[in-house]
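Job type: complex structure
Entries:
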Amino acid sequence: MRLLIFGPPGSGKGTRARLISRLLKIPVITTGDMLRGEVSRETEVGLRAKAYMERGELVPDELVIELVEERLRREDCSEGFILDGFPRTLRQADALDRILGERGVTLDLVLNIVVDPEVVVERLSLRRWCPRCGAIYNLKYDPPRVDEICDECGAQLIQRSDDREEVVRRRLRVYEEQTRPILERYMERSLVREMRGDIPIEEIPREVEEVLGPYLGNHLD
Ligand code: ADP
Ligand code: ZN
């Protein structure tokens, strides 16, 4: 199964993507994490991407498209994948159509998370991130067991510099202007299913199972 998770920053794309990944046993491709990895390893891509990310702007299309195209070629994507954070512009959406078309496959589903922008601003100010394994926490709604330490791998959690309020507001604007318009294309193809982004974390598994119900047949016992 090949699916996209769509929604503004802080809408809970990552949480849902990880859950679906476990349910369907397909990998999540998170462009934000891949780019942060490039930045921390100080690769050529990372050095070019860093300033855009810190400002809350999009990294140039060709950099991201190349990363994703390479990642999708790996063996673990042959049975399907979840794209989290890509495509984010019309050019990226065109590139994805081309990449899939070249392999004779299509998307199965686009999950669109709907959430109020003010909820996002509050949530992101409380978000902490594990730089080693990518796990995400929320100090109020989903805190780690030990203060500021990752449950999964024990690394020290950090706040992303782009989770500061003024940068979050810029990211929300960028989302409205550059990313949301892509949804129309997927709506025309009847691929879009909506999810509510404002439900409590404990209810997310049920929400995911409800929406994915028809696709889960052979995966859930
Ligand atoms: P969020 O979805 O919460 O905004 P991400 O971790 O997905 O955060 O992305 C963080 C930053 O990484 C973005 O603000 C942008 O600079 C960059 N980025 C991630 N994915 C893309 C993409 N597909 N195209 C361009 N830039 C991207
Ligand atoms: Zn971790």
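Summary: The domain at 2-115+166-220 is CATH 3.40.50.300 (Rossmann fold). The first strand starts at residue 2 and ends at 6.
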